[in-house]
Write the structure tokens for this entry.
Amino acid sequence: MKNWNFFVKAALLVFLLFGVITIIQLGTQISDLEDKVADADQQIEALNTDIEELWAELDQPVDEEYMKKIAREALNYHLPSEIVFYNDLAH
């Protein structure tokens, strides 16, 4: 009967340790997932800002100023009367 008492206590101790270790692992996993969710939320916010900027650009009227802006930014053009300076310094 004493042997059964010892084995029951040992089994309960092992079960308790297993439970504690499992809870710690789950807590760590939850923390990691919360960090991933926070990162995803930041990426979503950045993408939403980009989308809003693109919609604002699409809403601009297509006039001479808009065409000049596109020519300067996208095509790297300039007016003949302008002097363009280039540098290789990092921003």
About this structure: The radius of gyration is 32 Å. Residues 2-58 form the longest helix (57 residues). The chain is about 75% helix and 0% strand.
